[in-house]
Amino acid sequence: xxxxxxxxxxxxxxxxxxxMTVELLRHEGESLVPLKKLxxxxxxxNDGGPLLxxxxxxxxxxxLVFHVADYFRxxxxxxxxxxxxxxxxxxxxxxxxQAKYHVPLLVSPWSYSTYRGS
Length: 118
Description:
Immunoglobulin-like
């Protein structure tokens, strides 16, 4: 059964990004429709399981927005204003609603990377 999940690792501190805010939106034409806004748990994941499950998963274009600067400020990291990495918008496509899509983010105040996980 298809589903969408995410996981964020704080590479500055070598730990999951517990407490980071993440938004999930769906592209509909030129508009973005908000689907979820959540805070990551102690493992850097969504407490409620997948962001989209077999009943809500649909092919299409999506965006995850990771609130990186807010997370690091809450951890006491002194950031410049404006921060180098503030919010990370990640646009991606779901071509097969029956497949598993995992979108990890590795992040520091100065860099980030992502990939399609398993």
